[in-house]
Amino acid sequence: MRGKICEAGSSALCEWNDVDFDDRSACVVEYSRQLMDQVRRESCGKDVFCREGTWQVSALIGAVAKGEIEGDEGALIRELLGLISENAGCDMSSYAAAHCLVLMDQYSEEWDRHLRRRRCTNLICKPSYTLYIAPELCNGCENCIRVCPLRAIAGEKGFIHIIDTGICDKCGKCIEVCPKGAVKKSSVAGFPPKVPAEPVPVGSFGEVDVGDGAIRRRRRRRE
């Protein structure tokens, strides 16, 4: 489905027209958060629904995207969106809220996945994934190390870099500067990716073997 919200007569919302939720790069919950946040900032603010209602629902949807609230809050979000759509003093707030309600119905499984399990199918919302550096792609350029604001990446020139997921806040700066596309997302619901336990020379990386209840790590020699 593609959103159509310019009927509200606001040019400020026309940029939302071409979002395709079947595309792996989009998330209906994050879309709804961004939409209501823009409405909060740009609506008339003349009545409580445009002023307080849009702020509250934007904050609640944001908490869903961050995995900070439980499933029962979905009913409250629906109630607030319904009140805004029926009572807001401007078309922009009213139509955007109604649009989000439709999306909650059409993508109820994805909303439920966020609310009940803190999972995002397309790995857009941060609680649903961790970042790692694919050892077979990393060229040891240090670009990601230089831009990481939390110093969450270990390594040096010519060595495969490693992200400390306990420190990383998933800001995405490492993804932007990696020339090899080596920084990847890994679902927290799946098996963890195979990465070296510590930086090793580019061209060699650890393989994890599981046998007899023990985990043995081998390193390929660099050819």
UniProtKB/TrEMBL annotation:
Molecular-function GO term, any one: 4 iron, 4 sulfur cluster binding
Domain 4Fe-4S ferredoxin-type, chain residue ranges per copy: 129-158, 159-188
Record Pfam families: Fer4_10 (PF13237), NADH_4Fe-4S (PF10589)
Listed PROSITE patterns: 4FE4S_FER_1 (PS00198), 4FE4S_FER_2 (PS51379)
Superkingdom classification of source: Bacteria
Transferase keyword on record: no
Metal-binding among keywords: yes
Function: Ferredoxins are iron-sulfur proteins that transfer electrons in a wide variety of metabolic reactions.
PANTHER family membership: PHOTOSYSTEM I IRON-SULFUR CENTER, PHOTOSYSTEM I IRON-SULFUR CENTER-RELATED
This protein's name: Ferredoxin
